[in-house]
Amino acid sequence: MEYIKYNKELVLLQEENRDFAARLEQSIYGNMRIETGNNKGAIRISVQNLRFFDRGRYVYKLILFGEKKERTIHVVIGTLILNKFGIGENYFRFDPNNVEGKGASIDDYSVAIVAAVSMKNEKEPLHPVLKGKLELARDEPSKKQVISAAGLTKSETEPEEEEPEAEGAEGSEDSRKTPYEVEKRAPIHEKKPVKKYNHYYNEYLMEICQRTAKASEFYEIITPFSEDRTRARWRRVANVQNLPIVSPGALWGASKYRHYIFGEGPDKYYFGIPGRFLNEEQPEGGRSGFVLWQPIMGAESLEATKEDCSLENRMTAYGYWIAAIDKNTGDILDI
User: Fold this and answer.
1) How far does Cα 61 stand from its chain's mean position?
2) Which domains does the chain have, with CATH numbers?
3) How far apart are CA 256 and CA 261, in angstroms?
4) Could you give phi then psi for residue 20, rounded to 5 degrees?
5) Residue 90, class by beta-carbon neighbours within 10 Å (0-12 exposed, 13-18 middle, 19+ buried)?
6) Is the CB of residue 104 less than 8 Å from the CB of residue 137?
7) Backbone torsions φ then ψ of 218, nearest 5 degrees
8) Tell me: the pLDDT tens digits for 197-216?
């Protein structure tokens, strides 16, 4: 497979073994970004709450597993760099057409494992700590396909043909029944519409934002940006565990930099997560609503958001990833 075109994938890593947690009351979590293009590849991985071993009893390695020609293959990508707080990250380059040097391409691998490897006992088995599923570069049909009883392929997105109404249906017996009476006559196997409860999260998010706004006098007023697209009034919040948005990436960034910022405008609330204009520091790649990045005051000249910006400038320019919440609905909106 060719890897000329640019492609990227975010892989969420889920906990497999709590025994290697730095704080047992919290989960181990992380994410990994795989990028390919111009027949080159790169992996950025970030993890949090991994137990740190002072004397190097264990190290953590990123390993990819897959299948090629009906045999299991694996490749050790590299070792994570971990600090004493249990936060680890690293950056690896690879050849997407020949990851392990034996002809296997990146799309031959389907699982990523972060494993604890003993440095004292070579015979001790690996301890999988985090696990994620890879789907990069796999060709998938544009429509979901299902196989019918006759063995034919039919798209789930293709609408079913409706049966024509019988003549006189308008005056049928059911049309004169109450909704309750008609429902009683429905076949037992018919399912009622599933009730959705998403609105509870919106209400909860609005309530937390309102409480935070009312208690804003307890938070430090800051002016983080020289040019602010939101025009919000910002406060610095040090209690990162109270971050109400469901976003592991946002919690990771707030925990790493030990704060987040809360803003209020005429019709929106805002949450800002510290981070640089780097793929691995944007919470969930923007899928959780953190789509706007603004540099802190004094970092504008580094022009981190420009396509031709150097990696050195982007590593130096700090700012905030911002998500907006509608005051009236609790919806997370584009900015």
Assistant:
1) 21
2) 7-133 (2.60.40.200), 198-333 (no CATH)
3) 14
4) -105, 25
5) middle
6) no
7) -85, -10
8) 788 888 888 888 888 888 77
